[in-house]
Write a structure and sequence with these properties.
single chain; 162 residues; mainly alpha; elongated
Length: 162
């Protein structure tokens, strides 16, 4: 069996139990999250969240501040969010690449069928043209019949004279 370089490797079995999950459901969820992360709404929400966090920890009474300047906990939260966002976005992109690859293969097959159909029709038209060149046309038949009528008229005319 040949291995495809565009597909991930098979998962190797180990003795360590792994949590089970449905890859398709997880992929759909990651695409939804990645789609949301790429919106202006997400940027507005994150901006409001960070602004409220900073303003709270700057302006609130000392007893209510939970992350004083330099906001180390906020930095940790944003780093954690980024560390999850990047793989989710990559997973969504990989799934889109797979869909694009399938669409490309279907388009290529459809294109090959169209080319084959066009070549077949071209051969059929060429065959019809050749066949039509051997068939008497209406104008040819009309001219031959007129010539025969003239010949008959001439013969009748000559037989009447003699």
């Amino acid at each position: 069996m040949t291995t495809r370089l565009d597909q991930p490797r098979e998962i190797r079995r180990t003795f360590v139990p792994r949590p089970s999950y449905d890859p398709e459901s997880f992929g759909r969820l990651s695409e939804r999250i990645a789609r949301f992360l790429g919106t202006a709404r997400f940027l507005v929400y994150m901006t409001v969240f960070v602004a409220v966090w900073i303003l709270w920890n700057l302006l609130a009474p000392a007893s209510l501040k939970f992350d004083p300047y330099p906001f180390i906990f906020l930095t940790l939260m944003l780093s954690l969010q980024a560390s999850y966002a990047a793989p989710l976005i990559l997973l969504a992109q990989n799934r889109q690449d797979d869909r694009d690859r399938v669409q490309y293969e279907q388009d290529r097959a459809r294109n090959e069928r169209s080319i084959a159909d066009t070549e077949y029709l071209t051969r059929e038209i060429a065959g019809l043209r050749l066949a039509l060149s051997e068939v008497a046309t209406r104008d040819f038949l009309r001219s031959e019949l007129q010539q025969m009528l003239r010949d008959l008229d001439e013969r009748d005319h000559h037989s009447a004279i003699s």
